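--- STAGE predict ---
source: upstream dedup step, 1 unique chain passed
mode: sequence only
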Amino acid sequence: PSARGQLAWLLVGAVLVFGLVNWDVRGKEQVIAHGQRILVPLVPVDPRSLMQGDYMALNFSLPQEVSEGLENVLAPVQRVRASVDAQGVATVLALAGDGAQPGPGEVILPLKQLKGRWVLVTDAYFFPEGQGAHFAPAKFGDFRVLPDGRALLVGLADSEGRVMEPLPVRSIWELAPASNRT
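--- STAGE serialize ---
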């Protein structure tokens, strides 16, 4: 009976974990499928991490009054109002209070505190190994935003707002000389 009980708890735990993961994935898929496309100007830096591979650290510009208002915020998440122009480029206007609704031509964006600074959704974009030079000219973070303020970074865009796709990656078998293949 003890072994059956442990197995039952193990199965319940596994179902719970997989259920939560699937719920999170489903939520992100909804943001991508139904979210409004916006471009957020960024100031990229191309670091490299031995453990994480190639990525671009993302820094989003916030107006001084918003930055000053965030200094006194203790919550890990804050919302801001941003206007969206005809090209889809978002410009942060002000902090948004609880229950604030976007006006015409506006969106509500979530900011969260990561590593001591406020970022929009994330502070990094990961790309395939060795493609840093390809993504270096990126000028915008390409986001999808739902009316309730949920946002997701889906890629990077160039100065014209065009999505920057990763370059085709060759397999390890194509990289090795034919004499070394088994």
